User: Fold these one by one.
Assistant:
Number 1:
Amino acid sequence: MTLSLWLPPDAFLEANGHDELESLRQLCTYDLTSVSHGLRHAYGLLAILAKHIGSSQRIQVLMSPTDYTPWLVDTYFTLDQLRSKWPSIRIDHLSSSLQSVLDLARIVQTPATVMINSQEKCSSLLIHLTTEMAEHLEKILPSDEDHDTEVELLGLSFLTLAGLSIQSKSIADLVSLQLLPRLDGLVTEGELFTLMPSTTDLGVSTIPCFKCMMGANLSRRDAMTCCDEPLQEHCQYVKAMSRLPLASTVTSYGVNLRDSIFCHLQNCWITLAASVGSLRRHHKLWCQS
Amino acid sequence: MAPTSHGRSLAHDRDGIANGSLVQGPPPSTLAAQLVENISAPPRSSRPDETAELKRCFAIIEKIKNQPALLTTAAQRIEHNHMLIYVYARVVLESLRWDDPFADVAHLSAEALRAINFLRMTIKETPNVLLTTPDEQHFIFRGRSPLWLWILPKVLKVLGRDKCLALTEAIEGLLQEFFLVICHTGSLWSLLPTYVKCIQECVKSECSLIEPYQACTLNLLSTLGTPGRSSSFVDHKGHDSESMATT
């Protein structure tokens, strides 16, 4: 048995005054053959909207982010919950979903009331997707492809979550509870710096930033200028971090947690970069043999 | 400004707005002519009027290919591209039998990709074709809905299938191209909320369909004691073990 679906659904056709329901129905019958088929389809459609929300001023004029972002966050959340009940489903859209949710996490930081309601949900989703991506990283990254996109994505997720953790204790708690324990397995001792691939620009340039931000002798202004960062988003993040009025608004608990998270993320990042470098080297050796 | 197959500028149909994505490769009319050349005779149909319609369209495609100057106005080009999309959808997209267990999946995917690329180029060349509604009885299987609404479900049918995951990027690219073309063409701006609403309703509909089915299936598996869930999604890479197909 397959489940038939009308695309577009009747609700849409009726609402938009299309009076040819029957003839359109004949053309639009769509069979979902499996749960994963349905989820892949839905994720694919969401990606189309998520990619463009807030992407340019022209589109923002035509489509206000405040009109669509809460819906996107809610729907990604719903799909994530549906998918979590079927862990066996192959996640084809994990990277693109994480990218979309990262973009949404940036958009929902605006002070509009409607966005504030989506912030917690978006953060929770981001934590879940980041955890999942980190957990399955070695299996997700095929050893014969360039991993830079996924590595950057995961690094940006860590950075974003670190920033969100400073702003909200509940998010910091979630990160501590859900993400950090899962990352423990990734952190190893030893000569991590020597393992780090020199081609991973983000990895190389991120570490001085972490150090600066954690270091007692450097001001945040120094942190802004110390790295010649090739990745624009990261620069923006560092600048945003430098504007946070840390001392006046966050508790000592928050500051300590921030330092703890940064320290942890730094180790994770190095390990992540090292694991990718290791994969590359293994693949190269395998090809040579 | 890139010339089209008809030797005219694209800007005539773009409301003067350049989106930096000019048509590359063979123009739609050439691609359509190649399609016609690859098909020695129109596909057989139980309906003689359908065969006659395709023959008529094929003749027009050949004629315009040989004499592109016959299309003198932007409206004529839109009308011609409308017909090309109709033919391509009928001959290629609708003929793909994804559910046939004996089908050559590589061939189906190649055909689908060809159709997607064709649509992409045609819509880039004449964005306003998306809003075209045909005269009554002009095309047998076209109905009277705007072209975007007629073609969208045919594209969506390919998305997400286990057999053709490699097409996902191309399909998403095409639908994003729709999105950008609508945003960059003043006369299509009014279509944007409708297009977005359509995608939203499709996703809502899918979620509402999956949710109760999922609950029902999980209950059934639980009752039967069947281990339908795995702790690792990657263990099942490439498998549809959670198929809705039930015995």
Number 2:
Amino acid sequence: MPPPDRRLSVYQIRGLTEAQIWKLGRLFVAGRRTLHGRADVRAAIIHGVGLSVDADNMPVRHANVIGWPEKSKAKLLAQLLANQASLEVRPNGSVR
Amino acid sequence: MTATALVLKPEGLLSTRSASPGVSGEAETITKRIEEVLADFWLSAALSAKYVEAHQALVSACEEASRENWDGYGARPFALQASAAADRFLRALPTTAPSPEISVDPDGEIAFEWYLGPRRVLSVSVGSTNQLTYAALLGPNIVHGTETFVDELPPSIVANLSRLLSSDTMA
């Protein structure tokens, strides 16, 4: 589900190796939290459900999924994205 | 009156042994009735345990989301009214429904989700304004909407939960 500002934070991972993707998560996403896994979804699928990707590159490769509608429709779109996403679990256990 | 052939099992007071062969029909009737009462008792106890487990999951979810920005992305904490409504929602669920996953949405509403597999999911969010927000993927069908909730589940929620649990509609 999108946060209150309706800008869902994501990172563009096209062209990155697995190691680089996990490093991105460790550096810019996890913070003090434990990184357990990630959900990968193609931009075409995001566009396909009527949402947009706004790439701000702050930090590098960062973007926001925008265009979220009212809540019940947003829940539905979140379900559709989750249905098409692939869950990747950190291979060597969770890391900080 | 006829004495029954009930014998208490050594492992517990609430277990009965079937009437012995040769006792009267009345004894068998009484034994059967007692077994029915005990079956009701165990069903009630099981349902109670199911509620307690779900309630504990609700408490855990609320504890995790009790502060501003609890997810690091600006999420709002749960509202007390929302947690009370969520508890009423739990109590109103059909006894045959499986236990949902419980979490807090970034807007502070409390979400109940039944995920049975790809394109078999129903999510209902309970807020502090007597409003339910729901969405579901039911095989090839999609539904979403809002309903008013006081103490009884709106028919649309019951219907969609039934559709989710019915494998016949998922083809």
Number 3:
Amino acid sequence: MSWITAIWSATAGVCLTLAGVHFLVWVKSRASWANLLFSIAAGSAAACAGFELALMHAQTPAQFGELLRWLHVPVAVMAVSVLWFVRQYLQAGRLWLAWLYCVLRAVTLILTFSLNPNLNFREITGLHSISAWGETIVSPIGVKNPWTNITHASVVVLLVFVVDAATTAWRQGLRQRAFVVGVTFVMGIIVAVSFSELMNRGGAPVPVTISLPFLIIILGMAYELSMDVLNANRLTRELRESQERMILATKAANLGLWEWDVIRDEIWVSDAIRSRIGLGEAKRLDLDRILQSLHPDDRAKTLQTVRRALEDGNEFEAEYRSISVSGESRWFVARGQVERGSDGKPLRIRGVSVDITERKQGEIELQKLQSELAHIQRVSATGQLATTLAHELNQPLGAILRNAEAAELFLKQNPPDVEEVQAILADIKRDDQRAGAVIDRVRMLLKRRVVEFEPLVLKQLVDQVATLLHAEIQMHHVTLEIDVPAAIPAVRGDRVQLQQLLLNLLLNGLDALAGQSPERLQLRVRARRLDDHFVEVAVMDRGTGIPTEQLARIFDPFVTTKANGLGMGLSICQTIIAIHEGSIWAENNPDGGAIFRFKLPTADERVTK
Amino acid sequence: MNRSAPTVFIVDDDTSFLSGVARLLRASGFAVKAFASAAEFLSHRPPAAAGCVIADLNMPGMDGLALQSALAQSDNPLPIVFLTGQGDIPASVQAMRNGAEDFLTKLAPKGELLAAVERAVQRDGRDRAERARRRELQSRFEQLTPREQEVLSHVLRGQLNKQIAADLGIDERSVKRHRTSLMQKLEVHSVALLAQLAMEAGIAGDRRPISPPASPRP
């Protein structure tokens, strides 16, 4: 049996198969360069085997020389790809050694084609037929070419490179890889060099072979790569398990997972979200479709948040209501991370979404409670004030009344008791002052707090009061229209007092609207800049307005148009405005209702006291 | 003891209001005495003075309701009219249940105030006459000997002399004598009048001993 043909053909076959398999792996996964390099190396080894078989059956020395010259090509390709495989696979090896080797290999290729007959021999004088392994093969007889030493040098470089790379990899903990690659490569290279040296010396009855020793290397590489496949398999299994755990965890925590491919506008969501918004398996999701599943009021806001995150953020967070397929609306918070390419452009956002309906309801409840509380506090404070006020005022007023009645009677007496009446008048005067003092004390209550002037943004102030009154306004089905341009200059004032002022005016407005037809249930706050020094704020209602004869006195204490009013609210307002060096006045709206206007100095123009 | 001139006692911690009301009432023809606190009034008032009290409900120290109950337990329970700076429903209900003549705010119309004072003074007059008559009757009943009281109680139950004699274990003549004597002491001439008098004095037709005068009108 001709073993030589069988073995070399088998070698070529094995190498080609491996080359094919790994080439396919690379085609499927372009990033796995190790597989491509392996494929090239294995293909070259197969070519080597072919050339060697032809060499061994060469008819003439010239043919042998020519074939040997060409054999250098697959050997060079194979050696270079093996070298880069090592570097790629072990993630180690000195780059300058690698390039040095490549240069040396290129030199050998140039030399072998420029020298006659080739790099190995100065001349081949004849072919020596030997009978080996069941067939007759030829071995060259000739003079060794000294240039062939350059291949030895290149082999030394290759060895150094491999040993160095393997050692580095070993140190870095890739022990198995380093060992397999290092040992098989060094062995293969040494065997290959020994064979070629025997051939070069000429006359040695051995088959010319590079491919067989390289087969060792190829098999070593193949073994390692298949270990990778096994590893990948294990990783896949682990990944699946960890994914299952993840799903379990997300289910337990009621989390939805999502990922948005920004460039292709394609959204992947976990099954929980998918089934919530009622999408089948197959249907493609994009941003628009997701926005459709949100509460209409939340769409624009959410889209804006997404855009902002894409523009300049790394974090994405949005709270929104999502409408389920059954029409149920629940609150969610979505948090994600923006992933950007090397050019900084957003590639995708990955994140989770959590059902926060309970928390949100709690928040809304709390907010409602707070505003109710604020209202109750205010009302009870007013009520308390009213009670105290009524009690304290009734004393002097009662005294005045009784004295006046007594005076009437004394004057009717004949003769009138003038002395008594004079005493009465003195007492009445005193009691009047007492009543005034009570009112002053109420004013002092307002002033007692240390007044803190600061620049205040009118819009904020109005919004805060509107929030405070929100429940109250809604309860009365009144619409509050706020028309305060953001560009209006800040006013200088005491936040609490100005809030009190607006609160009083708005509450008065609300009272004035009681019993009005639904289309008149409107309150409006409008602000404008008067000039460089003042802004004007108007609070308008569509109620019954103020009787003309009362317009001038409406800010006096105890003047009220309400059945159970104390007549203190507007008086307090005037006090506040006076503290702020502004002015306040009332007028009737030609379209019905009252307008209260006040003027406040702007923050920058105000002269500090 | 001057029973004919009723005095209006005004109690209020607010001296200004106190003098105002005092002036008004004086000008309206009342005799007036003003006190700045309930304690001062209770310790300084003439013990048997007739009239009524006008008091503030809210006062430091002893307040109006405390004054009312102290007054009710005294020998001279004058009717009381409350004035208050601020209407306080629970307190006013309590005051009225305790027999206040009226409950007015300090800014109440003059007419209401004077009418309330007038009513209170008149009521005091009636109460006073009632109390005096009772006291007089009781003093008459107190003159009876124990045996006469026994006989009286049997007479009031409608028993005949014979039955009374049997019950008390004395002879009929003695019964007759006791009857004549007690009728004389009580200044009545018929059993019907006797029964009426006993009722007025609060003595029922049983064997109960004579009780002290009942508390003032509820």
